[in-house]
Amino acid sequence: MRLRLQRTGGFSLDLDLSLPATGVTALFGPSGSGKTTALRCVAGLERPDEGYIEIGGQCWQDSARGHHLPTWQRPLGYVFQEASLFPHLDVRGNLAYGLKRRGGGPHRLPEVQELLGIGHLLDRRVQGLSGGERQRVAIARALLTQPRLLLLDEPLSAIDTARRLEILPWLERLRDDARIPMLYVTHAADEMVRLADTLVLMEGGRVRACGPVTDVLLQEGPHLLPADDIGVLLLGQVLERDSRWSLARIGFAGGSLWLPDDGKPPRSAVRVRVLARDVSIATEQPQATSVQNLLPCEVVELRPDSKAQVLVRLACADATGGSGLLARITARAAHGLALQPGQQVWAQVKAAALVE
Ligand SMILES: Nc1ncnc2c1ncn2[C@@H]1O[C@H](COP(=O)(O)OP(=O)(O)OP(=O)(O)O)[C@@H](O)[C@H]1O
């Protein structure tokens, strides 16, 4: 899609993006960077000055030809910050609305109910639902229209932290099982890290970076995350479990890590977050160390992080898919080890967390 839009207040949007037709694409960026405006253009709720939008081979917008498919003709589902359910209907009535709007495909109510765990809520009034339940019903209603694309605009921002954690696994299930592409607007780093396959990083109405979430986080994470959140995301799978020590070995392109076992069986897909503050560097292979994870790496880049610290970008030495790590060490240590790009080192990963 290509979008150009100029607002009277001075804001302008200028995007040119080709996105994969699968998985979750997160539009991530600070407040006012244009995420919602971009989503509204895709939905046809806002008309860009110039725009070309093609979704799955179907043209929704081509301003050069004066073509603008109205919102109601775009096969999309839109989930807002606050679930916009009909208050006078119960959950079943709200879902029936979605079914009525479906484009003639098969009836998928049982499947969608199961996917979002809302079967037990069908007879409840919507006023009595928690924020998380309301959003699950809103997503179910959107799915029942059988959209080709699901748009979600900060669907968890009106929900308190405990409930957000409850609803995230449902969104992960949706991503993994529903096989419908999603454009997901958020400014919450934890949601982006858990859900995104592709990351579009927005700034001042422009795209600062776009690509697989792992790559964009490795390159741009230091600019966009708070210092304590700087790190990388690794996509991997459970290789084996050591029940004696309650550890699981997670393999990823570039090596493997032993992490606390969270019960997932071998071959399960997992996401692992390794924070820069939990990675240290040795120039020779440490012999006796309490650190369980030692990975041979090559130094790619050193960049000052503060007066006292540097961030070191590392490429895992046997990487087949370009996995990398970030290490935050003191400037004095970097000087003492004479670290420089191209140097072979050992990364010591003190801790890492499974994010799903
Ligand atoms: N209806 C409107 N009329 C005029 N200006 C608007 C309108 N809606 C948004 N804007 C402006 O357009 C710019 C982009 O807003 P937008 O809501 O797209 O950003 P955002 O990245 O989604 O922000 P947030 O995370 O706060 O929702 C902002 O400067 C905003 O003030």
TrEMBL record:
Cellular component terms per the entry's GO annotation: membrane
Name used for this protein in its record: Molybdenum ABC transporter ATP-binding protein
Cross-referenced InterPro entries: AAA+_ATPase, ABC_transporter-like_ATP-bd, ABC_transporter-like_CS, Mo/tungstate-bd_C_term_dom, ModC_ABC_ATP-bd, Molybdenum_import_ModC, Mop_domain, P-loop_NTPase
Pfam families per record: ABC_tran (PF00005), TOBE (PF03459)
Origin organism lineage: Bacteria, Pseudomonadati, Pseudomonadota, Betaproteobacteria, Burkholderiales
Keyword Kinase recorded: no
Protein source organism: Ramlibacter aurantiacus
UniProt keyword terms in alphabetical order: ATP-binding, Cell inner membrane, Cell membrane, Membrane, Molybdenum, Nucleotide-binding, Translocase, Transport
Signal peptide start and end residues: none
